[in-house]
């Protein structure tokens, strides 16, 4: 036997069921969009890190070449890649 309170809750649920479901779907969509944005940001961060490493290697290579040209260091062919 349902209490009066339970009947009221059920009536409210039925009355606002569509609105509640729409709000749930809106929240789910928002969370999915936030997750997708986070994944894009992570990928961008990884790409930036890779680019920074490549730039660093290139700058090191250029600096080494300059030092070799100036005779400050000798070319070590076995360590060059």
Task: Note down, in words, how this protein is organized.
- The structure is a single chain.
- With 81 residues, the chain is mainly alpha-helical.
- It has one domain.
- Helices cover 81% and strands 0% of the residues.
- The longest helix is centred in the middle third of the chain and has 66 residues, at 4-69.
- The protein is rod-shaped and about 95 Å long.
- The model has no long low-confidence stretch (mean pLDDT 91).
* Element string (H = helix, E = strand): H
What helical percentage do the residues reach?
over 70%
* Low-pLDDT segments: none
Beginning-to-end CA distance, first to last residue: 82 Å
Shape category: rod-shaped
* Mean pLDDT across residues: 91
Q: How many beta-strand runs?
A: 0
Q: Summarize the biggest pleated sheet.
A: none
Structural class: mainly alpha
Number of domains: 1
Cα radius of gyration in angstroms: 31 Å
> How much β-strand is present in the residues?
under 5%
Tally of separate helices:
1
Keywords: Coiled coil
Coiled coil: 17-70
